[in-house]
Design goal:
Six copies of one chain form a homohexamer. With about 325 residues, chain A is α/β, with parallel strands linked by helices. Helices cover about 35% and strands about 20% of the residues of chain A. The first copy, chain A, contains ten helices and ten strands. In chain A, helix 1 runs antiparallel to helix 2, helix 4 (about 130-145) packs across helix 5 (about 165-180) and helix 6 packs across helix 7 (about 235-245).
Amino acid sequence: MTTSVLPITTSTSHTPPPSPWMQARQQLQYACDKLGYDDAMRVLLETPRREFTVAVPLRKDDGTIEVFIGHRVQHNSSRGPTKGGLRYSPDVNLDEIRALAMWMTWKCALVDVPYGGAKGGICIDPRAYSTAELERVTRRYTSELLPVIGPEKDIPAPDVGTDEQTMAWIMDTYSVNTGYTVPGAVTGKPLSLGGSAGRGGATSEGVVTVSMLAFARRGIDPRYARAAVQGYGKVGAGAVRLLHDAGVRVVAASDQYGAIYNPDGLDIDAVQVYFETSGKLAGAPGTVEIDRDSLLELDVDLLIPAAVEGCSTRRTPAEFWLG
Amino acid sequence: MTTSVLPITTSTSHTPPPSPWMQARQQLQYACDKLGYDDAMRVLLETPRREFTVAVPLRKDDGTIEVFIGHRVQHNSSRGPTKGGLRYSPDVNLDEIRALAMWMTWKCALVDVPYGGAKGGICIDPRAYSTAELERVTRRYTSELLPVIGPEKDIPAPDVGTDEQTMAWIMDTYSVNTGYTVPGAVTGKPLSLGGSAGRGGATSEGVVTVSMLAFARRGIDPRYARAAVQGYGKVGAGAVRLLHDAGVRVVAASDQYGAIYNPDGLDIDAVQVYFETSGKLAGAPGTVEIDRDSLLELDVDLLIPAAVEGCSTRRTPAEFWLG
Amino acid sequence: MTTSVLPITTSTSHTPPPSPWMQARQQLQYACDKLGYDDAMRVLLETPRREFTVAVPLRKDDGTIEVFIGHRVQHNSSRGPTKGGLRYSPDVNLDEIRALAMWMTWKCALVDVPYGGAKGGICIDPRAYSTAELERVTRRYTSELLPVIGPEKDIPAPDVGTDEQTMAWIMDTYSVNTGYTVPGAVTGKPLSLGGSAGRGGATSEGVVTVSMLAFARRGIDPRYARAAVQGYGKVGAGAVRLLHDAGVRVVAASDQYGAIYNPDGLDIDAVQVYFETSGKLAGAPGTVEIDRDSLLELDVDLLIPAAVEGCSTRRTPAEFWLG
Amino acid sequence: MTTSVLPITTSTSHTPPPSPWMQARQQLQYACDKLGYDDAMRVLLETPRREFTVAVPLRKDDGTIEVFIGHRVQHNSSRGPTKGGLRYSPDVNLDEIRALAMWMTWKCALVDVPYGGAKGGICIDPRAYSTAELERVTRRYTSELLPVIGPEKDIPAPDVGTDEQTMAWIMDTYSVNTGYTVPGAVTGKPLSLGGSAGRGGATSEGVVTVSMLAFARRGIDPRYARAAVQGYGKVGAGAVRLLHDAGVRVVAASDQYGAIYNPDGLDIDAVQVYFETSGKLAGAPGTVEIDRDSLLELDVDLLIPAAVEGCSTRRTPAEFWLG
Amino acid sequence: MTTSVLPITTSTSHTPPPSPWMQARQQLQYACDKLGYDDAMRVLLETPRREFTVAVPLRKDDGTIEVFIGHRVQHNSSRGPTKGGLRYSPDVNLDEIRALAMWMTWKCALVDVPYGGAKGGICIDPRAYSTAELERVTRRYTSELLPVIGPEKDIPAPDVGTDEQTMAWIMDTYSVNTGYTVPGAVTGKPLSLGGSAGRGGATSEGVVTVSMLAFARRGIDPRYARAAVQGYGKVGAGAVRLLHDAGVRVVAASDQYGAIYNPDGLDIDAVQVYFETSGKLAGAPGTVEIDRDSLLELDVDLLIPAAVEGCSTRRTPAEFWLG
Amino acid sequence: MTTSVLPITTSTSHTPPPSPWMQARQQLQYACDKLGYDDAMRVLLETPRREFTVAVPLRKDDGTIEVFIGHRVQHNSSRGPTKGGLRYSPDVNLDEIRALAMWMTWKCALVDVPYGGAKGGICIDPRAYSTAELERVTRRYTSELLPVIGPEKDIPAPDVGTDEQTMAWIMDTYSVNTGYTVPGAVTGKPLSLGGSAGRGGATSEGVVTVSMLAFARRGIDPRYARAAVQGYGKVGAGAVRLLHDAGVRVVAASDQYGAIYNPDGLDIDAVQVYFETSGKLAGAPGTVEIDRDSLLELDVDLLIPAAVEGCSTRRTPAEFWLG
């Protein structure tokens, strides 16, 4: 958990972190070197099987037209249909989507489910458009991809900037096309449309379950363990709660504005109340504010990276999982 | 034919010519300005409807694996199925394909056929691979695009680096998938598979037919006209022959190695025999060699640009057609 | 169980009962009022999504032709494929089918299965036609509906005038069309074709199970309870038997010809033997005959309505379920 | 052209005219009697093959929801795909659509084109809704019918209350579903989308062409013939012009407000100018106003009924064509 | 026309003629030898691409069940969809169908239409079954072949034992499956269902047209030419009539019972009247009866073989066409 | 287990054994006689529903072409999709495949799984061709059968001459055609592609499980039982091991070269080591060699026939299972 084993990540804090795609390729290179795979095999594992870029014209509520660019990358379908999130953000670009798709391939393979990896995105700031506009954008994007998605081909899921409602629109667009309701066209849809119970907290639970297993393997008693959690979104806040429930002392947490610290453990109920009121962690009762990067170097038994990718300038996500 | 009306092309010979996509966008901008279309409309007309990038793994004859990148851009299908060539070249890139696809949209609209524009390409040097390897590459590329091509959707044609045989492979791959022979899946296929008679010379004939109409409109008698032809491939050599048959005096011609000139008109039979023997024009009997760029500035009544796009550093193709 | 809460059903015995569709709409109105839904929502919930009426020409065994009218109403498919019975009766009309389809939507939603409601019918007296004729009628009706039925769209089931054999014909017609056997095209098919064990007695079991739960909730000991069962078909006779097995004293039962009563409880074995012999209940040993309507007003703990809809002139089915 | 041969049309002017479906059935009965067809055959010819009724929910521009009822009747597809208009009117009902569909079957058979008859309609007043609302209504209606329409199945066309734009919406909805542009999905689409040139005036031209043939057969010289035209819409006004161009003296014309008459022939240019200005015929220069019904009894060689069906209370359309 | 060039056909009259398949293979061998094709190519050209054998159970009018065997051979589809007749005969066997399919491939290629060759058959004596039984047999056979036939795949036509009605059943079975009328599914259908005018006499006309061309090439004046026609079915009787109309003296004709001869030419009207009355040619007025085999050795300028294949024991059909 | 009850198998050792198809039909005849089924029913049960024969051209590694014949017989699909092995052997012929398909129908029915029986084969010696050639043969054969196979229609499995790799090729060819991975297209695929764990030993386990049940029913203690196993392939060798593990004394075993015997029981570890080294059983330590046919007449409690069908000249497989 401490020393980096990936020379490619020894960048100083002065240089920008590698792009997601660069990073993902470095990780693959590292793995291929470990496994003794030659370059041809690496290129085969790296090159996405299919990439789609589509125009998404929107007639806005004010009658004007704006054209967005949407992507979908299906990285590898050897193990089954591809699956992966759909991201709405002004920063979306093909390189990022490509990296996220390859990571999905790896994730599916690691947990041995019969799926491959994909990822999609539209280059749009969802907060700048009305719900009706987002619906039209989503339906048009889905329409353009109809021949290449579906329960047997490629299955979208919510991601940054999209949610249950987005999935409901995709599912409906797809279903109108087939002529009957196809709940399997997306995951992360509303419960009332066939969504899975427990999906909301699944990532937090997974992270904490794995952490408990790691503790057990290393002979660490959770009740005497200390943890720091980077990120306080759906995953991070959930992990803080579940770690606490498991007896772990959570000594630090951070959000996009700052980090808080209490060596004796956070009063997580008080922190949560404060966060809901103020919209940030810094200043929570019984905590001192520390530098966000310092959180990553605290002397803890467990460090949970629960921010968006690329937020850690010193260690790549791979370190956490491989370290 | 003489003065450029496009300010965007007044580059000096020292700067590289704009990329095809840049050039195509400038042409669209010029047209939209003329037509009074606003920016939203221009972006709508410019953005390709769908772009596909696929991995094309090849098991080479020596057993090793190589992965190529293939593209297909469907620019606009409002007027009907898209159609456009498929290019095999190590220089293929998405920007070039995008430009060629938009030009196809315009060409189809100009001659008022119910088709839209598309273009495809694989980044491969076809001379460096065996026929069996090229067949496997072509079939795999076709397989990946199966859901989005076909007589009602998008119809490939030969282009630089591909030919009748390539189209036959695509047609067969498509037909095996549908379960029956689908000649409409490609154009430019061999005559024995349903190809169109006369396709080979169609471009030359079109160029010369248009030239004769231009002469007629301007009151020029072909028998007293002088022409220069840039390029001596399938189109250029055919145009030389047809112009000569129409009574025009062809005074200059060029290929990738040089240009030839005879102010009294080339002896085209002698030139053709020389070219077939030596593989180049320079040195043909009864001609003097001139600079290739000089050919573009000869005092002629007709200048035929029949080289690949971007070969003229002083005038863009648009000049010739718009000038 | 006693007083009607629906003012719309306070019709006297002199006026005809409301038609099924009228009745169903009144029930929906009642529910919408309770839930505070506005009229637009009520109309949306009420209007069937799709209604099909098809001509069903039959070449009869004697060579003459007769044309029947068949209906299929798919009321609401928001929750999944629609499902519902297929009725063969000379009384079939679109209003009745429409009502039954809406009731199916409600039933599926109440038991929370991912299906919507549908219903179908052919206006034919099945007793007046040979088996071969009924097969041809069924197959033709199915053929006409092929584009809109199927395991993912709409799934027929047996109802009044149809049975396992009818479902087998539908399943076969559907399967010939798809090219392979599709057991999911119908429910209620013969066991040998994939039908569900226990389907025959499922309705009786369901009615009695619910009754026992109602007793438990109200603190009634079944061994001291008294029941009356209206209808002695597959459902009614089954309920009589199962209630008796559960210790309930069944004091009255009725069929389309009359009703029987014994305040000390019917000797159900004797009643069944008598019914099988004589084809009616009236006159069964150890019983007195009473008026059919009187059965509905007996002082019992449990009244099971197991006749076709609309048979009770004083209380609508809704009373029983809502009362 | 004079005496009615259909006893079923001898209704006095005091009784309302028969409904379209009643009328159509009477016409069929009359034809079957003539042809010696028995009742079974008549019922077979009469019963529509398939009738669809669908709910068309509209979210209006003000956010509220309204549900419309749409119909489509495919009367007979023995001779090929069915075709027929789509009508938007608050008076649309299944009986009317049924009659119009049967008439389409007859029309297609009479001119011996390989099509059968269909007709559709939505019960909506198109003038009371915005273009955006009508688009949403049209697209939803089309969506619901997707499995049963198309170039090989059933082809909509414009009719009362719908136009080229409506057809463009239908074509686009259908095309999005198939994944490529399908111009054959509708007739009457805009020219720019593949519509047929000359469609606008086709009905007038047909009426006048038939009239000239009738004159020729009866030995009437058009230059000495006199005509009256009932209705001054697209068909009627066109017929007036074309008759005049053919040398026929048009002595009377009518619209929904009144009729005009000039025994020496209308000055059709002046009439047209007046009509375009005032929106009605009555008062046109050089004409006297007469009773609308009187027009039908003028002593003319040719009477053109070009109003909507049922406008003539004394003679049914059948008279004109059969008389 | 006289000496056999095929050594493989020098069988004496004592040995049975080669089977159709043997014969067809010998013809192919002969052609490959001429063309210098090696054995691998010959086997490739010879082996049918796909052969289907299906069980055709029939519930007979008397309720019993009989199972027939049906075949369909698709010999070669390289040039387009396969097409070929469907034969009902108790003698049908796979070898015969295979040969006929290969001959169809050759015929289509010779007249350069974009079709390949196929042939089908059911081993049934059509005269021994009712029309209703034949309909059920035809529909079931068609059903079994649904995935592999159709306008783009394989198109049946009438042949020995089948006719327009058979084709109408096939077309209807196919059309019910697709959901709309598909006239292109068969050729040889009734005119009222879209059949081609002139099909009935097409073979006779073709034979006589070719004969006239042969006369012209050899400088023979038809008015001085003498012809013999073997077979007096649809083709033979038609050819007799058309030759006579072209001025040729038809001196002999034969049917399955015998042959007739008149060196001065038959009185073809009298012969036809006699044949229609008596059902045979022998005994026709103004003729002498000769041995059927003698007809093949008459001294004529033209010999038309218009009987079923294999009827000539001395010369194979190939002689006539190749000789 | 001892006396034959099938009169049709009383052939002496001098006559060749009946062909598989003859044998299978005799078994069916026997069963029908027992069940009192008439001939029509027997023919219905016997006749395969569909038989396909396809040409499989192979361009060999040396550039020459060879054409193979492939078969697939779908015997009966009444109970569900058909399934059955695919055999590569130079002895493959339609009669054999037909018999094996009917046996598959029976096997599926006996164990009451919702499948019917099929079988396929290509007439090729797989040991004489390279892996690349076998791949091309397999893919082409699959391509030809695409319209009639698949998870809902007919599912191939490995058999003599084919293995996991063959199934992987079929699955991939099928999946490329559908556009997504379809693991259900074959059984017996590699575990990494979704194959079933335990499939390898399933037949041995089944044989031994059934044997143990037979012992139990007959009151035989396995520890005192003696067994002989004919065949030492995947099934036979596995059965020897499992019987030994169950305590049974295996006294004899045979392979295609000879048989070994030890009345005290084979030392199965030693036998296995010897077999792996020498490729045959004869000569294994602690055994005497006996005649292969003698093995079938040893005085044992259990005789396991685990050779290919037809290897026993004295008793048909039916004896063992029915005896």
